Amino acid sequence: MAEIKIEKKKPIWPWLLAALVVLAVLAYLFVYNNDNDGELAENTQETAGLMENTNASDEYGSDPAVASYVQYVKNDPDKMGLDHNYANEALTRLMAATEAKADRIGYDATTDLGRVKEYADKIATDPFETTHANSIRKATDILTTTLQNMQRAKYPQLSSEVDELRQASADIDPDVLTLDQKQAVKAYFDKASDVLQEMN
Q: What's the chain's average pLDDT?
């Protein structure tokens, strides 16, 4: 009789085990890459924010508060409206920039800037108030005096620039509605940005 060869079946479990290991490795890599993608996205956003601030600082001067003010004024050409948000925000940023400059040179502007804040807050309180130009003028006069004192102490070469700033403040008529003299108000903020950049 002929012999029948019977081959023993090779066990399948090593193949199943190998497949499970490969799947586990792929799953780990997939999850790990997704975590890294999230971190990469967060890092990319943080880097973009830092680059934006750095670019603004490089373009408008070394001090971030000054750069923030200058960028706001330069990139917002005609946003002055009935709510007076533009004037309030411009004054607020100008105060911060002035304070940063004062701190850097050791000049105490706390009292003056506190008074400016009161006028800036008045502007934001009631949009239908007709005395906003008066508040803006008082605030710009105080800020100009503060910047002039700083200029005299540390930047004697900027006397003509500060004189022009004083004139820009005087051009704001406290008896005329702010919306009827947008250009004068905007001219003051532009000139203040020029002076602060020169101080940088």
A: 80
